[in-house]
Amino acid sequence: VEISTRLAPHLVLRHAKSIEAKLGRVSGEQWGPRPIDIDILLYGDKRLRTATLVLPHQRMWERQFVLRPLADLLPNLVGPDNTPIEKFLQQEEIAAQEVREYKLERNLVNEEK
After folding, report:
1. pLDDT band at 6 (very low <50, low <70, confident <90, very high)
2. Which of 6, 37, 47, 100 is catalytic?
3. Distances from the Cα of 19 to the Cαs of 96, 104, 110, in angstroms?
4. 72 is catalytic
5. 55 touches 43 (CB < 8 A)
6. Catalytic annotation on 81?
7. Sign of the C-alpha dihedral, residues 39, 78, 94, 103?
């Protein structure tokens, strides 16, 4: 998902965490299964490193499930060393990662509770 906002990155993160909580995410195991995971990958060309937020996302260039939809949104995006996003997707260790399409059964964004 790509958004446009005037909110500061940490406020966007706070809203993302609130959405995760509303959808059933609870704090727990860092790398364990969870019902929802909202990450901020990029915030324009901003670079940031704090205890709670790193921009750009520090592991996004290692994960096909991140890069594939990101390439759809930003096909001209370049990563470290000005490497085009498509080159990352062609790397053997990334291309070998299994990615399955997930189809939502309902619209979670517009639902009222």
Report:
1. very high
2. 37
3. 31, 16, 12
4. no
5. yes
6. no
7. positive
Please state, in angstroms and rounded to a whole number, the distance separating the CA atoms of residues 43 and 78.
14
Does this model's pTM top 0.85? My answer is no
pLDDT higher at 102 or 46: 46
Q: Are 36 and 24 within 8 A, CB to CB?
A: yes
Residue 37 catalytic?
A: yes
d(CA 109, CA 97): 29
The pLDDT of residue 52: 93
Q: How far apart are CA 65 and CA 100, in angstroms?
A: 8
Residue 11 has a pLDDT of 97
Helix, strand, coil: what percent of the chain each, to 5? 35, 5, 60
| Neighbouring C-alpha atoms within 13 Å toward the C-beta of 59 | 4
- Look up 106 and say whether it is catalytic: no
